[in-house]
Design brief:
This protein has 201 residues and is of the alpha/beta class. The chain is built from eight helices and eight strands; from the N terminus they run ββααβαβαβαβββααα. Strand 6 and strand 7 form a beta hairpin.
Length: 201
């Protein structure tokens, strides 16, 4: 995975609660097992009209937000079915950070496995960040994982907390396999010890 340290970007406001994984990536796109190519289908039912044309009212179709790498969303983001295609679609579009007051557990875990930071903030802080996001290209947010802060365009900042182990995974760009391989020496030592001391196993 790509490492995550600090990101400055326009943030797209999605003031909707309970954005589920079917809204993020509808079920008809789940046939693939490739992690690429899903960005065009992100939020497709809100993003496109029935004839396939873009819905000009949807935030990611507005000129100011087409390159947004941050999403500021309502409570309980990523609820619904446990499809890993949801973070794949976000990442393929270019989103590296989703900010909300809460996330569904499975989606939250899948974000870390794919190099996305799900940042949890208080309701008051979310309201401030949503206000910043709604200012479009005139305002950017800076998310600093090392200091666990999100800074707005006017110099103010809010804090978020993250488990140290998850933080390290993002800072180092480690997926599950790479994380396991960090303990390769210890695992090898254990296997050698087991074969010497318990050869019948």
């Amino acid at each position: 995975m790509d490492k995550f340290d600090k990101l400055t970007s326009v943030a797209a406001p999605l003031p909707i609660i309970n954005i589920d994984t079917d809204m993020i990536i509808p079920k008809q796109y789940l046939k693939t097992i490739k992690r690429t190519g899903l960005g065009t289908a992100l939020f497709s039912e809100m993003r496109y009209n029935e004839d396939g044309s873009e819905n000009p009212d949807f935030v990611l179709n507005k000129p100011a937000y087409r390159q947004a790498k941050i999403i500021v969303a309502g409570d309980n983001f990523g609820c619904g079915s446990s499809r890993e295609h949801a973070p794949w679609a976000l990442l393929d579009f270019g989103v590296r950070v989703v900010i909300s007051t809460s996330f569904a557990d499975i989606f939250y875990n899948n974000c870390f496995k794919n190099g996305i930071l799900p940042a949890i903030v208080s309701e008051d802080d979310l309201a401030k960040l949503m206000d910043d996001a709604e200012r479009g290209s005139n305002a950017t947010l800076t998310v600093d994982l090392a200091t666990e802060t999100i800074s707005g365009p006017d110099g103010g900042s809010v804090k978020f907390e993250i488990d140290p182990a998850r933080k390290q995974v993002l800072l180092e760009g480690l997926d599950d396999i790479a994380m396991t391989l960090k303990s390769d020496k210890a695992i090898g030592g254990f296997e050698t010890s087991m074969s010497e001391n318990r050869p019948w196993v």
